[in-house]
Amino acid sequence: MKGPLFYSKILLFGEYGIIKDSKGLSIPYNFYNGALKVEDNLEGFALKSNASLKNFALYLKDLQEAEPTLVQFDIDALLVDINRGLYFDSSIPQGYGVGSSGALVAAIYDQYAKDKITVLENLTKDKLLILKGIFGKMEAFFHGTSSGLDPLNSYLSLPILINSKDNIEPTGIPSQSVDGKGAVFLIDSGIVGETAPMITIFMEKLKDQGFRNVLKEQFIKHTDECVESFLKGDFKNLFSNTKQLSAVVFNHFKPMIPEKFHQVWQKGIETNDYYLKLCGSGGGGYILGFTPDIEKAKESLKEYELEVVYQF
After folding, report:
1. In whole angstroms, what is the distance from residue 94 CA to residue 105 CA?
2. Which pTM does this prediction carry?
3. Which of 297, 300, 195, 299 has the alpha carbon at shortest distance from 309?
4. How far is CA 9 from the centre of its chain?
5. What residue ranges define each of the domains in the chain, with the CATH number in brackets?
């Protein structure tokens, strides 16, 4: 058995903000993917994945008993396959903010959910919200809390515009230009990030009125502007707001930025060669970069390998 491929994703804008109803924009990233496979002799990563799937199956059994109207799975078939050697064969790096658990959740839903909402049907906003709700509860197994957006992106393999918590829709993004000087890129921090501790830090910060004001008046304001500018192809406005966003994150989300990147982060804001932002919850994994001139950014960041995601 080999299931269909599910891709990684990148949340271009909206990390942390979408918890507080900012806009967001998530795009599939086809460089990494994963699929369910069954093999007799499991070892290494496959063995670990199989053990994790066993715990996940028990969690899903409890979930459907607790919320029978939300979702039902063929748990028996899932457990039979796990005993046969089911694992998630994935090239998606874990703890890197590109949706490794999201792709797994999408694959399990696709293979084992009863009466599933399929990608082929007319996906109304209501159906998307139902899917997002199911995926959020499923992915909570891995992170303690989840918006459900990563699995949704992986399942649909389409860019998703988040207008607010209760208003999401598939969207088109400006087409890429291979000769374009502007680019979105990834830098590998070399550190594995963990989502749950970062979310805990953020929730703790939210208790402070000053931080809540910064979030609303600066972070969410610039995030919303970035999303709108990107979708319209207004790159001048995009870079101006990405710079502001980078500065707000540098000043108010320091614990989420790996320490060895503090200077690199600041250098981007000062030189305008590039602007860095969190990719997912931060704390490690990938760091997302935006640049008006990719060659200049490569020169400025020459000690790092830049992985170009999107050129315009």
Report:
1. 14
2. 0.87
3. 297
4. 5
5. 6-170 (3.30.230), 183-311 (3.30.70.890)
Pair 257, 249: CB distance under 8 Å: yes
d(CA 90, CA 160): 23
* Nearest one of 193, 177, 207 to 257, comparing CA atoms: 193
Question: How confident is the model over 107-155, as pLDDT tens digits?
Answer: 999 999 999 999 888 888 899 999 999 999 999 999 788 889 999 999 9
Q: What is the CA radius of gyration of the chain?
A: 20
For the chain, give me the number of helices (H) and strands (E)?
11, 9
Both tokens of 7, joined, read: 């891709």
Instruction: Decide if 220 contacts 24 (C-beta within 8 A).
Output: no
**DSSP H stretches of helix in 74-220:** 75-84, 100-112, 125-143, 149-156, 195-205, 209-214
Q: How far apart (Å, rounded) are the C-alpha atoms in residues 291 and 298?
A: 10
CA–CA separation, 142 and 145 (whole Å):
8
3-state secondary structure 226-242: HHHHHHHCCHHHHHHHH
Q: For 48-62, how does the pLDDT look when each residue is reduced to its tens digit (9 = 90+)?
A: 999 999 999 999 999
Residue 117 phi, psi (nearest 5): -80, 125
